[in-house]
Amino acid sequence: MPHFINKPNNRKLKLVVQIPAYNEEKHIGLVIKEIPRKIPGISEVIVLVCDDGSTDNTIEAAKNAGADYIIKNTINHGLAYSFQRCINFALELGADIIVNTDADFQYNQKEIPKLIKPIIDKRADIVSGDRQVHKLNHMVSAKKYGNILGTKVVAGCAGYRIRDASSGFRAYSKQAAMKLFVTSKHTYTHQTLIQATHRNLEVCEVPVEFRKREGHSKLIKSVSGHIKKSMSTIMRTTLMFHSFKMLGYLGALLMLIGFIPLARWMVLSYIDGHFGQHTQSLLLGITLMIFGGLSLFLGFLSDLIALNRRYLEEILYKLNKMEFGNHLEEEKLILSPKTKKEKKVEKSDRKRV
């Protein structure tokens, strides 16, 4: 039986730095100019900008700063849509590694070599920049503690430790980019981390600089609205992968709670010697039991749908490999040891040469 092992990759890799942007004419030029164009182990650095329906001069500023490719959304679709569109275009460009960064100049682009090193060294599929939120003095308290709470929720749903779940400064290997698909309309950060564990992708973090923002966030128009949308994305993504577990627990809990008023009705009716009284407890218990049973049924049904989704994900991955090339260096085929006869033939062939 053939088996697979990892081998070091001596081939120079192509890096695409993608920048989703919306009305960032003041900062996007600074971001592009700060991106290093020569990085050890990288043969080519391409800067890709996705203008998300900007109404200012973002496109002109990106052109003047030296962006290699600019794609434009006719209307403002949001960060998640622009992120996925950038990923698809970067794969079409033949990217081996994709770095996503923000257009507001809060991340230090000179740290890109540090961000992509675990991927070059084949220690990770996704590398996320840890902003070390708890140390940031310039972040508003509501956003800071919202980030910390959101990170704990994402870590619990993803099943592995993560220190900064909302960071927009990340690097993706080609394999990771082909396996992930963002369905959220708000942001990609939480969904991709939860997806990663179910797509067998290795995630690591490196500490990065996070500068003070000038102006207002284009994504977070209100902290409460952002939290609401983020929690919705986290819950929907978690249900995609753990529907039977979550709905099963909910159903079991409802049935357990429903047993309490039913038991109360039975005990009091036995004491009174009349089963026509205390009907409130009877109705409450039956209602909770019914909802618990429905939750369990929905859990089974959702699990069957999730199985179909996993097949679709594999089909999508294989289609991506066919479309964008199957040049993954992670797996090298090692043949079974040669027999003595094969070794003798090979040795005699070398002598003839």
Helix content: 40-55%
**SSE string, helices as H and strands as E:** EEHEHEHEHEHEHHEHHEH
At CATH's second level, what is the architecture of the largest domain? Alpha-Beta Complex
User: Ends: how far apart?
Assistant: 32 Å
| Major β-sheet annotation | 7 strands, mixed
- Report the CATH superfamily of the largest domain: Spore Coat Polysaccharide Biosynthesis Protein SpsA, Chain A
Kindly list the characteristics that best describe this protein.
2 domains; 353 residues; 10 helices; 14% strand; Spore Coat Polysaccharide Biosynthesis Protein SpsA, Chain A; two-stranded antiparallel sheet; alpha/beta; disordered N terminus; disordered C terminus; 7-stranded mixed sheet
Produce a short descriptive summary:
With 353 residues, the chain is an alpha/beta fold. The chain has helices spanning 28-34, 58-65, 79-92, 112-120, 141-158, 174-179, 189-198, 223-272, 279-324, 340-352; strands at residues 3-5, 13-21, 42-52, 69-73, 97-100, 126-130, 170-173, 203-207, 332-334.
Characterise this structure.
This protein is α/β, with parallel strands linked by helices and 353 residues long. The protein has 10 helices and 9 strands. The strands form 2 sheets. The chain has a 7-stranded mixed beta sheet with strand order 4-3-2-5-7-6-8, with helices on both faces. Helix 5 runs parallel beside helix 7 (189-198) and helix 5 (141-158) packs across helix 8. The model is unreliable at 1-8 and 327-353 (pLDDT under 50).
